[in-house]
Amino acid sequence: MASFETVAKQFVDFYYTTFDTDRKQLAALYRDNSMLTFESGQQLGATNITEKLLSLPFQKVAHKIEMLDAQPTATGGIMILVIGKLLVDEEQQPLSYSQAFHLTQDSNGQYFVYNDIFRLVYG
Amino acid sequence: MASFETVAKQFVDFYYTTFDTDRKQLAALYRDNSMLTFESGQQLGATNITEKLLSLPFQKVAHKIEMLDAQPTATGGIMILVIGKLLVDEEQQPLSYSQAFHLTQDSNGQYFVYNDIFRLVYG
């Protein structure tokens, strides 16, 4: 079984690659009880979360991970904190952001995002 | 019973007030299985975590919370993401930071910090 660090790294790489190329595919990473807090707006469930992510007002986006830390939780989950930068559309100035994920396993042992909190960080 | 938002707010206020006035009292918020990742260094257990926090090379520190988001977890815990600024010693220029906490309840229903990840954010 892969270590929690390996799962965290693979998950985050996959998450941002998917976000930057075909956002609607992110739906597969959430379930009906997943939660997203995105810049204070709150969404419950894969459908609402995907709708929110698809509604974000940019055409192009590129995430760059700067720091990724992960810890196992008591119940077989993984908590992840990402610090990164993102570029939207034709902007030249990257924005700093922080995103916390809590991955848990479903009954098949498949990881999904239970908690997801995203915030831009202003210097 | 207090809502998860109330618990999160009270916890974070208490945590930073204690950090800024008497760091060694933070030991009470951790248990033997608690984890801290502080700027990539990893500590396990209240004793090691407190030792690490006490060893930080500044005399004075002041945290200012800028954003605080919280979500409940599936097992009665709370995931918290804080974005803030901190001033150390005589520095005039605050540093941005991001800190993710995962609070869980012990057998008496008392919340403690199970996961704690801290990172400075460079603009």
From TrEMBL, chains A, B:
<keyword id="KW-0963">Cytoplasm</keyword>
<dbReference type="InterPro" id="IPR018222">
    <property type="entry name" value="Nuclear_transport_factor_2_euk"/>
</dbReference>
<dbReference type="GO" id="GO:0005635">
    <property type="term" value="C:nuclear envelope"/>
</dbReference>
<dbReference type="Pfam" id="PF02136">
    <property type="entry name" value="NTF2"/>
</dbReference>
<comment type="function">
    <text>Facilitates protein transport into the nucleus. Could be part of a multicomponent system of cytosolic factors that assemble at the pore complex during nuclear import.</text>
</comment>
<keyword id="KW-0539">Nucleus</keyword>
<dbReference type="InterPro" id="IPR002075">
    <property type="entry name" value="NTF2_dom"/>
</dbReference>
<dbReference type="InterPro" id="IPR045875">
    <property type="entry name" value="NTF2"/>
</dbReference>
<keyword id="KW-0813">Transport</keyword>
<keyword id="KW-0653">Protein transport</keyword>
<dbReference type="InterPro" id="IPR032710">
    <property type="entry name" value="NTF2-like_dom_sf"/>
</dbReference>
<comment type="function">
    <text>Has a role in nuclear-cytoplasmic transport of proteins and mRNAs.</text>
</comment>
<protein>
    <recommendedName>
        <fullName>Nuclear transport factor 2</fullName>
    </recommendedName>
</protein>
<feature type="domain" description="NTF2">
    <location>
        <begin position="7"/>
        <end position="120"/>
    </location>
</feature>
<dbReference type="GO" id="GO:0005737">
    <property type="term" value="C:cytoplasm"/>
</dbReference>
<dbReference type="GO" id="GO:0051028">
    <property type="term" value="P:mRNA transport"/>
</dbReference>
<dbReference type="GO" id="GO:0006606">
    <property type="term" value="P:protein import into nucleus"/>
</dbReference>
